[in-house]
Amino acid sequence: MATKIDWYPSPAKLNLFLHINGRYENGYHQLQSLFQMLDYGDELGFQVNSSNMVTLHKQIDGVPEQENLIYKAAMLLKPYAAESAGCIVHLKKRLAMGGGIGGGSSNAATVLLVLNKLWKCELSNADLAKLGLTLGADVPVFVQGKTAFAQGVGEILVPVKLPTKWYLVATPQVHVSTQAIFTHPDLPRSTPKIEFSDYSFEGTHNDCETLVSKLHKEVASLLQWLLHYAPSRMTGTGASVFAVFNAKEDAQNVLDKLPSHYTGFVAKGVNHSGIHKAL
Question: Which end of the chain is more exposed for a tag (fewer CB within 10 A), N or C?
Answer without folding.
Answer: N
